[in-house]
Design goal:
Elements (H helix, E strand, L loop, with lengths): L13 E5 L35 E5 L9 E2 L3 E2 H13 L5 H15 L17 E4 L8
Parallel strand pairs: 1-2
Antiparallel strand pairs: 2-5, 3-4
Helix pairs in contact: 1-2
Pfam family, one: Peptidase_C14
GO biological process, one term: proteolysis
InterPro entries: Caspase-like_dom_sf, Caspase-related_regulators, Pept_C14_caspase, Pept_C14_p10, Pept_C14A
């Protein structure tokens, strides 16, 4: 995926949200204790890399299963919608996605009669090539 030419006045970001499995591995989880942008360039014209200003938000890391609840939908989308509703106008996109990661990791665990699919976990993954902070 390549970006388009951006004018000097603004940067157009592309956000891709993927809520799908990226493999078939299951995460058993582990026990844990609780435990300045440089604006000094006087030249108003500049080039940016073609891959700049993309953000990919994946529901899970490569190789792993992405869980969903039949009645409420995917864990990732549930957490994303919740964080956006609560704090989407106040936080920067990376802060939002970090909170989504936290909620999916801490608040969700699979429940199944099949021991192979019971008590499994999930962690979302983000890949950012953003060059500036992004607020909604």
């Amino acid at each position: 995926m390549e970006g388009t030419t951006a004018q000097a006045q603004y940067v157009r970001a592309t956000i891709v949200i993927v809520g799908a499995c990226r493999g078939s591995e299951l995460d058993n989880g582990i026990q844990a204790d609780s435990g300045t942008v440089n604006d000094t360039d006087a030249n108003p014209k500049y080039k940016i890399p073609v891959e700049a200003d993309f953000l990919f938000a994946y529901s899970t890391v490569p190789g792993y299963y992405s869980w969903r609840n039949p009645g409420r939908g995917s864990w990732f989308v549930q957490a994303l919608c919740s964080v956006l509703n609560e704090e989407g106008r106040r936080l920067e996109i990376m802060q939002i996605l970090t909170r989504v990661n936290y909620r999916v990791a801490r608040d969700f665990e699979s429940q199944s009669d099949d021991p192979h699919f019971n008590e499994k976990k999930q962690i979302p993954c983000m890949v950012s090539m953003l060059t500036k902070e992004l607020y909604f």
